[in-house]
Amino acid sequence: MPIATHNGTPVWRQRTSRQSLAIWAGWLALVALFVFCWQVMTKDTIWAFVQDAPRQAADIGSRMVPPRWSYIEKLLVPLWDTLNIATLGTLLGIVFAIPVAFLAARNTTPSVWLVRPIALFIIVASRSINSLIWALLLVSIIGPGLLAGVIAIGLRSIGFVAKLMYEAIEEIDGKQVEAVQATGASASQVIDYAIVPQILPTFFGVAVFRWDINIRESTILGLVGAGGIGLQLQASLNVLAWPQVTMIFIVILATVVVSEWVSAKVRHAII
Amino acid sequence: MNATGRTWRRPPILIKDRRWRIGIYAGLLAYLVAAAASIEIDWLRVYQGLERGWRFIEGFLRPDFTSRWNDISHGLIESLTMTVTSTVVGVIISVPIGIGAARNLAPLPVYAVCRSIIALSRALQEIIIAILFVAMFGFGPFAGFLTLSFATIGFLAKLLAEDIEDIDSSQVEAVRATGASWWQLVNYAVQPQVMPRLIGLSLYRFDINFRESAVIGIVGAGGIGATLNTAIDRYEFDSAGAILLIIIVIVMVAEYGSSTVRKWVQ
Q1: B53 to chain A, closest Cα gap in Å
Q2: Quick one: DSSP state of residue A65?
Q3: Which residue of B41, B84, B131 is in closest CB contact with A147?
Q4: Which of A141, A147, A237 sits opposite B56 (nearest CB)?
Q5: Max Cα–Cα distance, chain B, nearest Å
Q6: Residue B1 pLDDT > 60
Q7: I need a surface site. Which of A102, A175, A231, A243 has the fewest CB within 10 A?
Q8: Residue A97: which pLDDT band, with cuts at 50, 70 and 90?
Q9: Contacts for A15 with CB less than 8 Å, ≥ 6 apart
Q10: Domains, chain B, ranges and CATH?
């Protein structure tokens, strides 16, 4: 136990002086990094705008209330589109995620050295690129509309679903697999009767969880032209119609809260 | 098995009652058909786009780092500095809020205030906050920095509060029995228990912040997202492919690094 002597009497200390020096140096490095990054980041910042921000905020705030309640009539169809983007996108993602997950799991992949790294790269690539970026790309490739949104959501979901699924597949109970193998089952029968029943609860949980996240993300896909309620948001922002923007925010917030509640209920019922 | 005239049938996966099962499946199918019908596909436009899609894949396979390197490096520096500063500031702010949102440390009024801050920050998405901050603070990484800090607060404070509520209370009692003040209690009983997880969560949030910094640039909040948006708008798919590859590599490095540090801390 580290003890320092103070006026001739031993005093307990939490750390040795070497430890506290190392921790102190670590904090110093962090502060230095922060200050450096701050300097670089704010190099081009116009501070007059920042000082002006409270006034701007008050100005925008006063324009945003009251929300234009009657605008909700025009929001119902985009909202329906948003839900469809999320649902169909989730389904599309799941369809591709299942084979990727089986190829990425150490105990089901056909080849650890060749196929598994490819599957893992697909997962990382899909996970690190946000659905809004996918949508941006797809809008410029296949044109604006719901289809671009559905594919964007699907591409982003592959990595998420496949990652959680392959972790679940790697954690299954090997005894059941052996038991089914002992009956003379083929590889596909082993997957069907020994692996699938074990990962099914995780699968439904992950699918519903992703659906919930996708609803959140599909509300803003319209900002880049991929359909849904975000299109209305973009249109309202472009003409500075702040009361409509508030109304859209309220609708998005309500949708997100409801979908979160539904997904929590469903997951609770399944698991 | 035919001797008894009975064969084994696999039990249904989810819903045991037959009528419910058929009803729910039929409902789902009807919804899916309606949903699929609501998507209008302009096949001609898709066909025309295929050529561009192919060019994107080509650009992804043969990325062009050099011709737009100035813009890319500028956006990358903005993104990285934004990520560092916003993570640090977000963590600094979320620690007191997280302590305040833990029911076993904070009195009820403080708890209610902190929990509502968390709920507000979590309910609004980064993009929406970024739109508002860009409108208030002007274009550029400063608005992005504020957005990411604000989003970090909701994420980190919530998880920290839950972690504090789950700590081993006997250690708290032991420290309290020595006559420690509230500050000493937090410092000697709570902090050692939650510190490894707090470091892990901060690193995880660093990852997320970098990924988000690539997105909020689309609405004008600075960072690599703005560069990417420009590249795609100009149909420069080889530069866009290069930016996407850089993002993927940085996310991979950050994920690998943070998992190593987390193992080392715990």
Answers
A1: 5
A2: -
A3: B41
A4: A141
A5: 81
A6: no
A7: A175
A8: very high
A9: A2, A23
A10: 65-265 (1.10.3720.10)
Please answer whether residues A108 and A175 qualify as being in contact, where contact means their C-beta atoms are separated by less than 8 angstroms: no
Give phi and psi for B102, each to the nearest 5: -95, 120
- A224/B56 Cβ within 8 A: no
Give the gap in angstroms from C-alpha B104 to the nearest C-alpha of chain A.
Answer: 25
DSSP codes, B114-182: HHHHHHHHHHS-HHHHHHHHHHHH-SSHHHHHHHHHHHHHHHHHHHHHHHHHTS-HHHHHHHHHTT--H
Burial of A240 from C-beta contacts in 10 A (0-12 / 13-18 / 19+): exposed
ipTM: 0.80
pTM for the structure as a whole:
0.83
What is chain B's mean pLDDT, rounded? 86
Q: Which of B85, B125, B219 sits opposite A38 (nearest CB)?
A: B85
Is residue A27 within 8 angstroms of chain B, CB to CB? no
**Per residue in A173-210, pLDDT tens?**
889 999 999 999 888 889 888 898 889 888 988 999 89
Q: Which residues of A touch B247 (CB under 8 A)?
A: 128-129
Which of B38, B78, B136 minimises the CB distance to A56? B136
**What is the pLDDT, as a whole number, of residue A20?**
85
CB-CB neighbors (< 8 A) of A147 in chain B: 39, 41, 46
Contact list in B for residue A151 (CB cut-off 8 A) is none
d(CA B164, CA B179): 21
Burial of A1 (0-12, 13-18, 19+ CB in 10 A): exposed
The residues near A2 (Cβ < 8 Å, ≥ 6 apart) are A12, A13, A14, A15, A16, A17, A19
Angular region, B3: left φ>0, alpha ψ -120 to 50, beta rest:
alpha
- The pLDDT confidence band at residue B8, using thresholds 50, 70 and 90, is confident
Torsion sign over Cα A218, A222, A227, A228:
positive
Q: Is A249 on the interface with B (CB under 8 A)?
A: yes
In tens, the pLDDT along A14-68 reads: 777 888 888 899 899 999 999 998 888 888 777 877 788 888 888 888 888 888 8
Per the structure block, which two tokens stand in for A57?
Answer: 């905020």
Tokens 């084979």 belong to which residue? A99
Interface size, chain A vs chain B, as Cβ–Cβ contacts under 8 Å:
140
Q: Which two tokens stand for residue A249?
A: 């925010």
The count of residues in chain B is 266
Tell me if B233 and A38 make a contact (CB, 8 A cut-off): no
User: How many angstroms separate the Cα of B222 from the Cα of each of A41, B29, B59, B206, B225?
Assistant: 10, 43, 24, 17, 7
